[in-house]
Amino acid sequence: MGTILKQELRRTRFSMILWSAIAGLIIFFGMLEYPALAQITGAAGLGAMQDAIAAIPVAGQLVFGVYNVNLGDPIGYYIVMYYWVGLIVFTHAMYTGASMVAKETRDKTAEFLFTKPYPRQTIVGAKILAALVNLLVVGLVTLMLSLVGMLPITQDPAVLGQILLSGVGLFLTQCVLAALGFCVSALFKSYRGGVFAAMAVLILSYCLMFFVQYSGNPLLGWLSPLAFFEISNTVLNGINLLFVLLAAVVIAVCLVLTQRLYRGKEMLG
Considering only CA atoms, which of 60, 134, 123 is closest in space to residue 97? Predict the structure, then answer.
C-alpha cells in the first residue's frame, strides 16, 4: 500500500498546489475588496447596501452567497468569502474522490495496476488515503490563508475562533464529498461518466443546501452534505454533533460500497 500511496501523492502534488493556489487567489482578492467595502458601509452606506442586496431575488442571493448576511460585520464578510472559496474546495473534493480510481481507466493504466500482486481492496485503500492527504492539504492551506487574510480586518479572538471552527466543518464536508465521489464513480465503467455523475451530485447538493438555507430550518441539513456544516449556522451555533455522526455514517457507507463495487468491477479492456 505504501508504494501505491507514494506514487499517487506524486501524481497529485501539482493538482494540490493548483487547487490551493486558486483558493488562495479568491481569498487574496476578497481581502483586497474589503477596504472599499468598509468605506461604503460607513455612515448610512451599510443600510443602502443591505437594501440593494434585499432587492435581489432570493434565488440570486443564495447563488451569490449573500442571503441573510450582514456584510458590515467581519464574520458576515467571511461567510461570503467562505462561500466562494467553498466552490473551489468542494469541487476539488468531489473531483478528487470521483477521479482517484477512475483515472486509471482514462490513462489506460488500469490493466497494469489491477494485475499487480495487490488485492483490489489494498489498491483502493491506498487511493482513499491519498485522497485524504489531498483534502487535508487543500483544507489547511485554505484555513491558514483565511486566518491570515482576516487579520487586517479583525483581530477579535471570537471571530478568529469562529473561523477555526469553520475550518473543521470545511474538512468534514470535504471528506463527505470525496467519499460520495468515490462511490458514484465506482458505479460507472468510464472515467467521464463517473466524473460527470459526481459533478451532478455536487450541483444537486448545492440546490438542496439553498433550499435548507431558504427554509431557515437547520435541522433539514441532512438533505445535503453541504448543509451538514453550513457556514452561517456553524459560526453562530457551532458544529452539531448529530451532523458529525451523520457525516461519519455517510463516509463509512460510501467507502464500504466503493470497496465492494471495485472488488468485482471489470477494469480491464
Answer: 134
Q: Residue ranges of the domains in the chain?
A: 2-263
Question: Over its length of 269 residues, how does the chain's per-residue pLDDT go in tens digits?
Answer: 677 788 888 988 999 999 999 999 999 988 877 766 666 555 455 667 777 777 888 889 898 888 888 877 889 889 999 999 999 999 999 999 999 887 766 655 555 455 555 677 888 888 999 999 999 999 999 999 999 988 888 888 999 999 999 999 999 999 999 999 999 998 988 888 999 999 999 999 999 999 999 988 888 999 999 999 999 999 989 999 999 999 999 999 999 999 888 876 665 44
Distance (Å, whole) CA 126 – CA 123: 5
Q: 56-68 in b/e burial notation, b at 16+ Cβ within 10 A?
A: eeeeebbeebbbe
| DSSP secondary structure string for all residues of 143-170 | HHHHHHHHTTT---HHHHHHHHHHHHHH
Nearest CA to 234 among 176, 173, 183?
173
Q: Which three cell numbers stand for residue 182?
A: 468515490
From residue 114, how far is each of 90, 101, 144, 252 by CA, in Å?
29, 11, 38, 24
Cα atoms in the Cβ-side hemisphere of radius 13 Å centred on 80: 20
